[in-house]
């Protein structure tokens, strides 16, 4: 593309972003972070690499021909999908959009179960009459649409339970009364069920404008990430679960109104054997003045209920922890209580004796006292393995000589995460001297390349899916500040001596994955880099060796990097 065309495109992109909402957000960002960081962010947002979402969405919408072919597919398993919707004085255009989006599904074995709680003391209310007239008309036209009219509004959880009572399908789908499904949504859900026999599954989503004309703000999600779910309800829509699981839950709970779906999702995944993710945008979440999507402060009670949902989840699965709101509503921080304070062996690696001494002194000044400190003479993998073998601690903490944490309880926070069942390793976020992110997890590419997630963004920025700020899962963690169980380290054969530290850490993390263990990035635990990070030289021969070792896993793609994103080049852009 020529320079002139680029300029025209950039001017258009800037003009599209100069609306009242974004100007307000811009001033707030400047107030909190300063002009310099705002300009860095603005340039990245105004001149993105890759396609715009509008272009991408138009290319990925199913054509009429594709929808016709989908209607002709006969799956081996053809479950009835019961979509449950509580309505309450829904604006008629939204109500029609919602119902019509279900009726247009290419997979036709569905039922739409609606409980209308619009009546709020006055049966002559115009809003009530219009909603019920529309629901009557639709249910007369299509027998798959079931409606129950409630005598009073019982709240969203109880109203949803009334809709759920109408459901007879093998799977239950949750649907808000003002949102929309894409016409291929149920087809893709049923295809995934046939391919993988999921108990529970969810999809990607985007936002739709109030006038239904503009699709924006896509949410391209990772595959099931238990730790991310405890920091943010990233699953939200479209969520589908086996009715046999739903029946065991006893329905939605009114004490979680506002985040009743968050509580419901937790209880479903706790019982599910297989949680699936359909990496396609199949759900449009409506933005308007009264919605959480349009105004996050409009329903503070919903965020308090979300906090309660996480806390209840921890109590059910036996994790001792305290949940707190983060500055951005809808994000949560967990402080894990240490059941005991195990001995942690801190293994400092690097080539500068003064830096290692300073790093060692820093650990001695912090809150966690039950530790031993060992220092490597360099960054040789074999030497680091030897120190790990000598270590007496239950936990091994590998750390670069250049790092210091900004929190006194950094070790305790990371060790707390490592207590969770099936967590095999945990790392913290590394900030460089220019207040930018140096390390907050690693993404692997199908060719064996290792790419730092959200690298170079400002230390106050949230990154993709907020994962530069919250706890989440990655397939690979770097060795900058890396904690694991010593017994697991020994069982997996330690770090592979044929790799430099970068690929040795990647190799170890993938071994954890093969043994059913997760890697956790605790991005709320921040470490500051006091110098350049050294993990050994990477060459093509080493990359090839890593690829040969893990090619089957690599070809499947990174579970925590959405498949819609670019396969090469910069991360988190659309091709």
From TrEMBL:
Lineage: Bacteria, Bacillati, Bacillota, Clostridia, Lachnospirales
Domain Glycosyltransferase 2-like: start-end pairs: 82-243
Organism of provenance: Dorea formicigenerans
SUPFAM superfamilies, per the entry: Nucleotide-diphospho-sugar transferases (SSF53448)
Entries under Pfam families matching the protein: Glycos_transf_2
A single MF term (Gene Ontology): transferase activity
Keyword Transferase in annotation: yes
Record's keyword terms, sorted: Transferase
The protein, known as: Glycosyltransferase
Domain of life: Bacteria
């Amino acid at each position: 593309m020529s320079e002139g065309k680029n300029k025209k495109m950039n001017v258009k992109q800037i003009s599209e972003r100069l609306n009242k909402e974004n100007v307000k957000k811009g001033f707030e960002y400047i107030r909190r972070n300063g002009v310099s960081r705002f300009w860095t962010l603005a340039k990245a947002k105004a001149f993105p690499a890759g396609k715009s979402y509008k272009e991408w969405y138009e290319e990925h919408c199913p054509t009429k021909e594709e929808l016709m072919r989908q209607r002709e597919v006969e799956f081996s398993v053809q479950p009835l999908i019961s979509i449950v919707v509580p309505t309450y004085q829904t604006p008629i255009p939204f109500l029609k959009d919602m119902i019509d989006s279900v009726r247009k599904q290419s997979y036709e074995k569905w039922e739409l179960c609606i409980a209308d709680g619009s009546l709020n003391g006055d049966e002559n209310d115009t809003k009530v009459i219009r909603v019920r007239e529309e629901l009557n008309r639709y249910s007369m036209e299509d027998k798959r649409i079931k409606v129950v009219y409630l005598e009073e509004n019982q709240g969203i959880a109880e109203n949803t339970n009334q809709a759920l009572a109408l459901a007879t399908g093998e799977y239950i789908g949750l649907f808000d009364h003002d949102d929309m499904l894409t016409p291929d949504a149920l087809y893709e859900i049923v295809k995934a069920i046939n391919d993988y026999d999921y108990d529970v599954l969810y999809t990607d989503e985007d936002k739709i404008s109030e006038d239904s004309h503009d699709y924006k703000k896509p949410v391209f999600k990772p595959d099931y990430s238990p730790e991310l779910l405890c920091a943010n309800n990233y699953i939200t829509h479209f969520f589908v679960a086996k009715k046999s699981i739903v029946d065991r839950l006893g329905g939605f709970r009114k004490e979680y109104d506002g985040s009743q779906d968050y509580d419901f999702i937790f209880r479903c995944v706790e019982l599910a054997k297989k949680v699936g993710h359909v990496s396609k945008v199949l759900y449009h979440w409506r933005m308007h003045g009264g919605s959480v999507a349009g105004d996050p402060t409009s329903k503070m009670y919903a965020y308090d209920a979300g906090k309660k949902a996480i806390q209840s989840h921890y109590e059910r699965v036996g994790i001792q922890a305290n949940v707190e709101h983060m500055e951005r509503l809808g994000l949560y921080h967990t402080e894990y209580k240490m059941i005991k304070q195990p001995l942690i062996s801190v293994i400092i690696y690097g080539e500068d004796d003064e830096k290692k001494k300073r790093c060692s002194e820093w650990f001695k000044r912090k809150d966690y006292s039950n530790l031993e400190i060992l220092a490597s003479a360099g960054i040789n993998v074999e030497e680091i393995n030897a120190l790990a073998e000598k270590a007496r601690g239950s936990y091994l903490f590998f750390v670069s000589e250049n790092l210091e944490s900004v929190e006194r309880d950094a070790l305790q926070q990371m060790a707390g995460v490592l207590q969770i069942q099936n967590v095999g390793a945990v790392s913290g976020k590394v900030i460089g001297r220019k207040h930018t992110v140096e390390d907050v997890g690693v993404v692997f590419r199908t060719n064996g390349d290792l790419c730092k997630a959200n690298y170079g963004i400002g230390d106050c920025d949230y990154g993709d899916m907020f994962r530069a700020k919250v706890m989440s899962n990655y397939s690979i963690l770097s060795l900058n500040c890396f904690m694991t169980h010593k017994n697991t380290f020994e069982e997996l054969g330690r770090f592979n001596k044929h790799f430099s530290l970068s690929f040795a850490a990647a190799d170890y993390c993938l071994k954890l994955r093969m043994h059913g263990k997760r890697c956790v990035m605790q991005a709320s635990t921040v470490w500051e880099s006091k110098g350049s990070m050294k993990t050994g030289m990477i060459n093509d021969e080493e990359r090839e060796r890593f690829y040969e070792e893990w090619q089957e896993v690599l070809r499947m793609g990174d579970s925590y990097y959405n498949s819609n994103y670019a396969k090469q080049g910069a991360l988190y852009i659309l091709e």
